Amino acid sequence: MSLVYDVDAVVLDIEGTTSATGFVVDVLYPYSRSRFGALLSERSGDPDVQRAVAQVREELGDPDADAAAVEKALNAWLDEDRKATPLKTLQGIIWSEGFARGDLVSHFYDDVVPQLRAWHQAGLRLYVYSSGSVAAQRAWFTNSPEGDLTSLVSGLYDTENAGPKQEPESYRRIAAATGVAPSRLLFLSDRPGELDAARAAGWHAVGVRRPGEPYYEQGVGDHAQAGTFDEITVSTTTGTTGSTA
Ligand SMILES: CSCCC(=O)C(=O)COP(=O)(O)O
Ligand SMILES: [Mg+2]
Known about the structure:
The protein is of the alpha/beta class. The protein folds into two domains: about 5-20 and about 105-235, HAD superfamily/HAD-like (Rossmann fold, 3-Layer(aba) Sandwich); about 25-100. About 40% of the residues lie in helices and about 15% in strands. The chain contains nine helices and eight strands. The chain has helices at about 20-35, 35-40, 45-60, 65-80, 85-100, 110-120, 135-140, 170-180, 190-200; strands at about 5, 10, 125-130, 155, 185-190, 205-210, 225, 230-235. The strands form two sheets. Strands 4-3-2-5-6-7 form a six-stranded parallel β-sheet, sandwiched between helices. The chain has a two-stranded parallel sheet with strand order 1-8. Helix 1 (about 20-35) crosses helix 5 (about 85-100) and helix 8 packs across helix 9. The longest helix is centred in the middle third of the chain and has 17 residues, at about 85-100. The model has no long low-confidence stretch (mean pLDDT about 95). Magnesium ion binds near residues 17 and 189.
């Protein structure tokens, strides 16, 4: 099936779409798991840590949960791969420091970076909307195997600044923030619930189905689908580029 879109911006999911879930789960998750304890005990005065800990306590329904209980909850959510905002905030702090230190280098599928460069060159704006925190996204694009890609990206959205990925309102919020009309936005994701929410907000949506990814067998419902970014032709009749990531 030929996938051709005239839009002004492409919004990218990361895990399962630009990048392998296996890499996130096998490399990034253990990296954060082994560092939650130190973060909670040594950086409890950091405002981002404080905010995330308050959110964990709220989710637990226990305002007095101590550091051990908070760490236990974070590890349980990691085991379930639950995309809880405070978990993602704390992971983002740990990962961005790991990327800056040179412990970590991100992963992109081979077809992704050439296509992002081509779309950017053609005048399309590129945005990211991921459950991973904005700090994690910035580190991810800064520390790619192909060097710093942040100049390709015009903005970063996560569940904290935009809201849950399966709710149409989050996509309306992103459209308003970018100033791009919903009908001029294309969302690429591996998860049908996210594609449904984007479409309900008036966006174009394409499901990316890569063999070996968790949602590959389930498919993307009645959404248009692509196996790689090469299969998606995107052009813009009105767009201009810019990078604010
Ligand atoms: C650089 S973000 C790391 C991946 C991650 O933690 C995550 O939750 C990604 O979820 P997505 O919404 O991109 O599928
Ligand atoms: Mg995903």
